[in-house]
Amino acid sequence: MEWLNEYAFKAEEKMDADPVLARKVYTRLAERLIQAGTGSVLLFGTILEETNLILAEVLQSAGIRGFVGKLSMDISSRPSYIEPSAAASLENARRFVKNVRESVAHLDPHRQLVQPVLTPRFVPTCTDELLNGLGQLAQEESLMIQSHLAEAHDQVKWVKEERGEEDIKIFERHNLMTPRTVQAHCTFLDVPSLSQLRTHGTSIAHCPLSNAYFSTEPFRLREALDQGVKVGLGTDIAGGYSIDIMNAMRQSVIVSRMRDGQREDRHTPGSRSLTVDWKESLYLATRGGAIALGLHPKSGIFQVGAPFDAQYIKLFDNVNKNGVGALDFLDLHGMREIAEDMVEKWWCIGDDRNRTGVWVQGINVSK
Question: What secondary structure letter does DSSP report for 3?
């Protein structure tokens, strides 16, 4: 809450008061996302409908698949940055959903890139009345839901003290844990709670860098994957220093290795390692994210009939016989095929110099 009060609320309120600034910010955001190779993004917006409609318009124009969430908040915020009541918040959310859908209704289905997402910021900023109404609206309109769940010690403590139970129970009671729900962070969920998410079909957005800043607990990624929970990687965008999902891949592996190094049973025969490797992180940043977002069943794989969402990554320049960007290959005489260790080298030190194209639904958005 200290960070929200000092930075996030002020920035969001400033954009809500200045649509010209909002358009500038969101246009640059779209440019940065494409530069980083991100073609699909799930975003928390602000509380004002008009600002979120600007965000949706910008993403649609840029060719990015955008799941846009107008924040719902009726308590525990700055006096000047809050919705007046649960009823008003629900009416605003309903109107936002209608207007986003109408804004793309004239397009062919495969070109309707933006969708509205119901977004109770997190339990501390939402009354039970608001949460209950959002759960009903999500069911009526088959809407996606996003929020923060069990992210930080002070948030978990606050919810227990104010509401008498954990936030996962509150979300469940109000029908907000569904197969169309994505919960960010979830660092304080134990293994039984992770199993509850799997039962509900709820996805987790794992943002390892943001967790390092705002949570005193690392996410139990290995356990979530072993439980069969849907997990996709995120950067949190504002919750760290990098918008590039490649850094999130690397950070997820680093955190898992640190967790494994702290296991008391790490030298016990048969004990389960907590690490994830580079291939698993690459999966989470691509196919895993597509599954978490509920995209087309074949999204994230190269098959006939799958949406062509892809990046073109160049590792080696055959003309100059040099590696591209930070990659050096000094002993590859007559190279004809890409080897696995070359891909791993790109995973370790590659950057946007290796990215020569980004496609969303078959259209090159990086031109």
Answer: H
Task: Walk across the sheet containing 355-360 and list its strands.
Answer: 310-313, 355-360, 363-364
DSSP state of 7: I
What lies within 8 Å, CB to CB, of 74 at 6+ separation is 82, 83, 84, 85, 86, 88, 89, 125, 126, 127, 130
Please report which helix (H) or strand (E) contains residue 359, including its range.
Answer: strand 355-360
Give the whole-angstrom CA distance, residue 62 versus residue 101. 17
What span, in angstroms and rounded, lies between the C-alpha atoms of 100 and 56? 7
Which residue has 């069969």 as its token pair?
228
Residues (pLDDT < 50) of the chain are none
**What contacts 11, CB < 8 A, 6 or more positions away?**
238
DSSP state of 22: H
Confidence (pLDDT) at 255? 97
Contact 315, 327 (CB under 8 A): yes
